[in-house]
């Protein structure tokens, strides 16, 4: 069984202790993750700090070229990364699974490499010239989750290093192996110390986020953990980008075609078995087409093959871990106890793996956990409404505000409803379709700051105004 290492200062660093990483489809051990100590963490931050001056001093074009080479390196090793990702995360190789994720990582890396933040001239006249310069911040601590571990790692790393920062990344203990391998590949291209990786047993987060030599934190994960990250950063006023949990609402207007939207609704809710922050997690359907939408969704779901992600014909895999399996099971049971009607799924089979069936629950409303809280799994509540004002009010009646969607045959009408939703991103007749040139981030308790595009690049800089 392969024992993975830390990567600190461009070198493989063996750990004294390791943790088994298991396949959520079978429970089999797929590799041994290193467990860093506080001394390892300090060494990684020190390596990043030492590498920062030279990396920040390099020209923007040099850094762009190296980031583009990182994209080429990921692409050249795509199949290895995809298979390792499937083994530890569970998502299938095909469909919107591991090969899709590695392709997304390449696309985001390549696009971000092409971006730049040139000097902006605010004023140039008889009263003088004023220039706005963007400068790198320093050492960035990146903390990533287990749902999209490679792609989200690239979302954190590439804009940070593109703008001249150095990075220490700490992946989730559930899925550390693909991230460690990603960093090993990056170190074939980047100067030593620019990109470092540590792994832990969920015991080093606070030491990393409070470290005095870390200047910025970028974190993707739950709102509860995001609050703790923010608190630990307060003493040194670290810069923060927090992409936190969501409970995205979709509203189906009465003029929508149930059969035409069924596929989009399904994948908006069930991509990665529902383990995505910006999944469709609450669906509000007008009474006049409620039964038709329920029938169309159930019919589409019945054809979806769930199984071991290494099987080439599987398109949905298991939940990644037992804790999440327990949450989804509890939420569905609570919904049924409160009058919910299970259209499909809802009864997981015994046996190895954290397989929970695609589940649609009709006739639920606010007050059920499946509606009020983020399920982060393959269970979708379908809520009946009679008046659009009621639907908008209910959609906004949640502390989260990551994404939302409106489904209609009239785009103008849909955009009018979309404008009233309290969320950072909103889609018309689709859900969760993010892209590398469009800013993405949450409002309310779904986060601080944005990712992607030029606006996301700016998150990794400070402004210096030069008066000439």
UniProtKB/TrEMBL annotation:
Record's keyword terms, sorted: Oxidoreductase
Domain Aldehyde dehydrogenase positions: 17-466
Entry-linked InterPro entries: Ald_DH/histidinol_DH (IPR016161), Ald_DH_C (IPR016163), Ald_DH_CS_CYS (IPR016160), Ald_DH_CS_GLU (IPR029510), Ald_DH_N (IPR016162), Aldehyde_DH_dom (IPR015590), LUC3-like (IPR044086)
Gene Ontology molecular function: oxidoreductase activity, acting on the aldehyde or oxo group of donors, NAD or NADP as acceptor
Active site: 243
Protein name: Acyl-CoA reductase-like NAD-dependent aldehyde dehydrogenase
Domain of life: Bacteria
Any Pfam family matching the protein: Aldedh
The family this protein is said to belong to: Belongs to the aldehyde dehydrogenase family.
